Amino acid sequence: KLKVVVIGGGSSYTPELIEGLINRHSELPVSELWLVDIEEGREKVNIISELAKRMIKHKGLHIDINVTLDRRLALKDADFVCSQFRAGCLEGRIRDERISLKYGMIGQETNGLGGFANACRTIPVTLQICREMEELCPNAWFLNFTNPSGMVTEAILKYTKIKAIGLCNVPVIMEKGISKILNASEGEFIMQVAGLNHLIWARKVLYQGDDKLDFIISEILKGNDPLVPSNIPPFEWPDDLLRKMGMIPCAYLRYYYMSDDIMKQEQAEANGEGTRGEVVKAIEKRLFDIYKNPALEEKPKELEKRGGQYYSEAACELMASIYNDKRKIMHVNTRNNGTISGLPDDCVVEVSSIITKNGPLPLNVEPFPDDTLRLIQLMKEFETLTVEAAVKGDLVAAKRGLILNPIVNTGTILDEALKETVFENLEHMPQF
Ligand code: NAD
Ligand code: G6P
Ligand code: MN
Ligand code: MN
User: Fold this and answer.
1) For 298-323, how does the pLDDT look when each residue is reduced to its tens digit (9 = 90+)?
2) Which of 13, 207, 252, 255 is catalytic?
3) pTM of this prediction?
4) CA-CA distance, 352 to 329, in Å (whole number)?
């Protein structure tokens, strides 16, 4: 028997996960799938479970689908636990975006003050889940997609005994984009990425005996850039910067390289169609109306409007790679152990790794240019202090971390913004 548990089963991404499990049923014979949610998500998770049952039946397969609000019941003897919940739900995300913007900062789910707030809501719940796992399924793998994925994974690896791997769809989207530019299938080339979650660079694109990095960069500069997720508006990199860099920055790096431009765009959006969280709320409503249709038996096209497209696909591939010791190269959040030189061994980095039955075996990374390394070190220190603040409820650690973050304003504005963040989130941040 193979038991998979999904925490946050009511996510609109779950049909992609179901599709991934269906497509891999012969190599990953999941017998039981448990969808765990909370009271707020009861209606959503029930709609998802009915759709999942139809999708599975449509393909003539048998996977036992269970819905529960009782997490302990679900965790008992699990083999894989996939975490995709949103602590504080969408309201929490929208609040983060609005508070940041109010204080003149970029308002984003995983970056800057919003990323900090998200970490402080999410890490306490995640550590509680892992404590339950230590008791109920100590050998299970915890596959984390819950954002901020890198910091959440670091918290688990530092503070619990659970085997955890963090995932993100950004490297998957980069790989798909590169495959389009090269006109090659994904198995035909190797892309190596390194950095931190939402702060990675592609370092190598090995294809037919050459490194195609410069070619890909020149295509991107010509405007051929299919490497950007749908939650980040298409934009052009400064030509001089990209040409000299010799690496491909992930789309999220625009928050650091072009913060003022992003800031203006976000402010305009916030006064128009709404923040990304508000836009997502509307997309989600449409998605659930589609999911409710009893005639629907497949993942709908509308899901592509979400930025998280393909991450459930990556999750299923990760499970299959561990389960079958596939030794496939995937891009995951795992313990550094010297993979990126200049960072502590025990911190979590996002790096291309060989996936074995024992977990990820990261591929050593060519040293980063000094300026990029400094940015990564700064952001890692922000992350590590945020994890510490989130675990211990240490507001001084929080402030020390936030001061380092290049897209966070400091001084009285930070004091006020931090106070408001904690005050507005009291229910979800019991540590403070
Ligand atoms: P969502 O708002 O739909 O939340 C998913 C579900 O989590 C909801 O049904 C909600 O009720 C439930 N939930 C909230 N708190 C819970 C708790 N304590 N226990 C169990 N369930 C709980 O969110 P979404 O847009 O589907 O995203 C889910 C998560 O995945 C977010 O953290 C998001 O940032 C993340 N995400 C990550 C990636 C990635 O690249 N790693 C990609 C997409 C989404
Ligand atoms: C992806 C990121 C995810 C994030 C998602 C947001 O690019 O990798 O970590 O959750 O975008 O998409 P959304 O549709 O929720 O804005
Ligand atoms: Mn991500
Ligand atoms: Mn700053």
Assistant:
1) 888 888 888 888 888 899 999 999 99
2) 252
3) 0.98
4) 6
